[in-house]
Design goal:
This protein is an alpha/beta fold and 451 residues long. It has a single domain, classed as Alpha-Beta Complex (Amidase signature (AS) enzymes), CATH 3.90.1300.10. It has 14 helices and eleven strands. The strands form two sheets. An eight-stranded mixed β-sheet has the order 4-6-5-10-11-9-7-8, sandwiched between helices. A three-stranded mixed β-sheet has the order 1-3-2. It is globular.
Length: 451
């Protein structure tokens, strides 16, 4: 029996994606107020079970540019981006959030595409986990089967988009946090190149900026139109202009298939089958498909874990500077403390692992002298049950599980390269299976055309 939780119905939202809703708004077949009312009704039906929403502002939205491509289309921001007048809680109980004084630069870029912000979505503490679970609160759940994880860190966003509450939602990605929940929930999730969108404040403060903002969506064209609109609103002259991708290109590509993870984690049968099927599909379309090896090895995994620990250590030691006197590090969860403790032990290695991570961009670029695109799993296995990645699991065990699960996604973050998660089938139990396309820096266009 299906356990799926969804809100799709015959209301103003229907089953349209954002491109269709924007067209209906322009034709005045529906109003922005009607769409917001539909979001409120849908969230009321499914969010008590899915727990994806952090803040409800359907009654007092922040409206976007009326000339943007998505003018009047409702969406949700992740709980770690500043929206003027709204609190940003970062998924933690360690401080009491105050209303933000101004929009973050990336918030302004979202609004420039015309999107109306009607609330925020839940995330795990500071985005450090790959499942939207908490030590003391209810988890966010997968709408395909609420017994399972919806991924993270943009897990609340993915759960609500997949369930039909909004057509797309803001997300950001520092190690897979757009692509992981997109794969877990059967969505499209593109992590742009470093610098394609406005700098994320948290990422920009760190020695290597891993964080890129974007959206999770139910259609490739929504992601393409969003990215083109955001790029047009804030052009980065260091990257090629993007334009709107409206369909596949005719050119044939060199596709490198990666099935062996840097961690050595076994790829499960459903995931391997999905990647193989996509490789065969691409070969049948005339693309040159061959095996590929990333070349980073297990040393990269160790270095990334050290850097992950550095991020948590920065939270533990610098939280009061960021959030004020209400910040209490004792209220941080065990995963944050475990990662911070890991970094304390790795402290002397900092110059070495940072040097090696900075060299990854050159290794990655060299791969793309032989391949135009890399095809791989997003995750080494399909979504785990709630509890498998909970922050209450002992740190050593949880860290090992996380590294195995997210083995394929962090490389693009360190290299600053674009990568997209795409739905590619389902397990016998109905859980989504995703595949991953990765490109060279600045080449989102090729990924979108192939997607």
């Amino acid at each position: 029996m299906s356990r799926r939780v969804h809100a799709f119905c015959d209301d103003a939202l229907g089953d349209d994606d954002a491109v269709s809703l924007a067209a209906r708004l322009r034709r005045r077949e529906v109003s922005a107020a009607q769409l917001r009312a539909a979001v409120a009704g849908r969230a009321a039906r499914v969010d008590p079970q899915l727990r994806g929403r952090a803040l409800d502002r359907t009654g007092s939205p922040v409206t976007g540019d009326p000339d943007g491509p998505f003018a009047g289309v409702p969406t949700l921001a992740k709980d770690n981006v500043e929206v003027a007048g709204w609190p940003a809680g970062h998924g933690t109980r360690a401080f009491t959030p105050s209303p933000s004084r101004a929009h973050a630069e990336v918030t302004r870029q979202l609004l420039a595409t015309g999107l109306d912000l009607v609330g925020t979505t839940r995330m795990p503490e500071y985005g450090l986990n790959a499942s939207t679970e908490f030590a003391e609160d209810e988890p966010a759940r997968n709408p395909w089967d609420p017994r399972y994880s919806c991924g993270a860190s943009s897990g609340g966003a993915a759960a609500l988009v997949a369930a039909g509450v909004v057509p797309l939602a803001h997300a950001n990605d520092g190690g897979g946090s757009i692509r992981i929940p997109a794969a877990a929930c059967g969505l499209v999730g593109l992590k742009p190149s470093r610098g394609r969108l406005a700098p994320n404040a948290a990422g920009a403060r760190m020695p290597i900026d891993l964080v890129a903002d974007g959206v999770v969506s139910r259609s490739v064209r929504d992601t393409a139109v969003f990215l083109a609109g955001a790029d047009r609103a804030r052009r980065n002259p260091a990257l090629p202009p993007l334009g709107v991708v409206e369909g596949p290109a005719r050119r044939r590509l060199r596709v490198g298939v990666v099935l062996e993870s840097p961690t050595g984690a076994a790829v499960d049968g459903d995931t391997r089958e999905a990647v193989t099927a996509v490789a065969e599909l691409l070969a049948g379309q005339g693309h040159e498909v061959s095996e590929a090896v990333t070349g980073v090895g297990t040393r990269f995994v160790e270095d990334f874990l050290d850097y992950w620990g550095l991020l948590a250590f920065s939270v533990v030691t610098g939280g009061r500077l960021l959030h004020g006197r209400t910040f209490d590090p004792r209220r941080l969860d065990a995963l944050t403390h475990g990662l911070a403790d890991h970094y304390r032990r790795a402290l002397a290695r900092t110059p070495v692992f940072l040097h090696r991570l900075r060299r990854v961009a050159a290794t990655h670029a060299e791969l793309f002298t032989r391949h135009d695109v890399l095809l791989s799993p997003v995750l080494a296995h399909t979504p785990p049950e709630i509890g498998w990645l909970a922050p209450t699991v002992p740190f050593g065990q949880l860290a090992a599980r996380l590294l195995d699960y997210v083995a394929f996604t962090p490389l693009a973050n360190v290299a600053g390269a674009p990568a997209i998660a795409l739905p590619a089938g389902a397990t016998a139990g109905g859980l989504p299976v995703g595949v991953h396309l990765e490109g060279t820096v600045g080449d989102e266009r090729t990924l979108l055309e192939l997607a």
